[in-house]
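# step 3/5: fold
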Amino acid sequence: MKIFAVGNSFYGDDGIGAAVLDRIRQDEVFPGAELVDVHTDALALLDHLAVGEKNVVVDAAQMGLESGSVVGFRPDEVRLKIKSDHLSMHGFGLAEAFDLAARLDKMPADVLIVGVEPERVEINQGLSDVVKEAVPRVISIIQAEVRSDG
């Protein structure tokens, strides 16, 4: 299994992915999982997605929900769930990265995106309290996904 963080830890709640990876490392929640921080480069996912394995992507996602809300969804739902793909300001967003991966036959069948609704996305700010509190819920969603595979 590979777990990816997408986002910028120096940009407030956009750092949720990195915070989740840090907690996974600290608590040794998923032994043997490869943890990859692609930062703001969603296109870098193409170099790391693993066909034949479970792939989990954690990112801040503006979904129009209450701040700190956590939602798991599949790549074909990205355009439906994310109201504003903040990664597009860096070039490629998740939807475009997954579309390209599919066209290049690099898209794994087993991908889960876990989105967290940000409260604030401001430079030189840490995670807001409500998003910090979401970290265990993100991990629980990943654990439930792993258990559902038997």
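# step 4/5: annotate
The helical segments are 16-27, 45-48, 78-81, 94-103, 129-132, 135-148.
# step 5/5: archive (pending)
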